[in-house]
């Protein structure tokens, strides 16, 4: 499972950190145009993407959900795109993408390394 953050059309100086969740637990994060990957067992899974809040007292207002059914031996690519408009509102779009596009983005963007917040 590849989780790709695509900020190529996000016209803001501030780039958010995007957290990724699988089946109710956090599995990683990206910042700017980057990606990471992780293994999933076959079966139905529920994904979450959200802006990481600035501190633990804040809840993320920007989030999106998706689900998919994994089959053994297959790769899955999901892209999150941040949207910002001139009025300061933000949103994210989170969707599965074609494997060719996913491989292209992964080869173009940097690999994300992350650690749990303390």
Descriptive notes:
With 118 residues, the protein is mainly beta. It has one domain. It is built from one helix and nine strands; from the N terminus they run ββββββββαβ. The chain has one helix at residues 99-108, and strands at residues 2-6, 17-22, 25-31, 34-37, 43-51, 63-70, 77-84, 90-97, 110-111. It has a five-stranded mixed beta sheet with strand order 8-7-1-4-9, covered by helices on one side. The chain has a four-stranded antiparallel beta sheet with strand order 3-2-5-6, with no helix packed on it. β2 and β3 (25-31) form a beta hairpin. The two termini are 26 Å apart. The model has no long low-confidence stretch (mean pLDDT 88).
Shape: globular
pLDDT below 50 for ≥5 consecutive residues: which ranges? none
- Give the termini separation: 26 Å
Count helical runs: 1
Sheet with the most strands: spatial strand order: 8-7-1-4-9
Instruction: Classify the helix fraction into a percent range.
Output: under 10%
Q: What is the makeup of the main sheet?
A: 5 strands, mixed
Strand content: over 45%
Topology order in helix (H) and strand (E) letters:
EEEEEEEEHE
What is the rounded Rg? 14 Å
Number of domains: 1
Counting DSSP E segments of at least 2 residues, the number of strands comes to 9
Mean pLDDT: 88
Structural class: mainly beta
In short:
By secondary structure, this protein is mainly β.
Helix-strand blueprint:
Layout: E1 2-6, E2 17-22, E3 25-31, E4 34-37, E5 43-51, E6 63-70, E7 77-84, E8 90-97, H1 99-108, E9 110-111
Parallel strand pairs: 1-7, 4-9
Antiparallel strand pairs: 1-4, 2-3, 2-5, 5-6, 7-8
């Amino acid at each position: 499972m590849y989780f790709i953050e695509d900020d190529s059309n996000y016209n803001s100086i501030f780039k958010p950190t995007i957290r990724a969740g699988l089946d109710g637990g956090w599995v990683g994060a990206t910042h700017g145009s980057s990606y990471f990957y992780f293994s999933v067992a076959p079966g139905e899974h529920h994904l979450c993407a959200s802006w990481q809040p600035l501190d633990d007292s804040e809840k993320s207002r920007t989030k999106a959900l998706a689900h998919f059914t994994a089959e053994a031996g297959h790769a899955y690519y999901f892209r999150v795109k941040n949207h910002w408009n001139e009025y300061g509102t933000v949103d994210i779009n989170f969707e599965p993408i074609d494997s060719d596009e996913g491989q292209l983005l992964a080869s173009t963007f940097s690999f994300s390394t992350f650690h749990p917040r303390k």
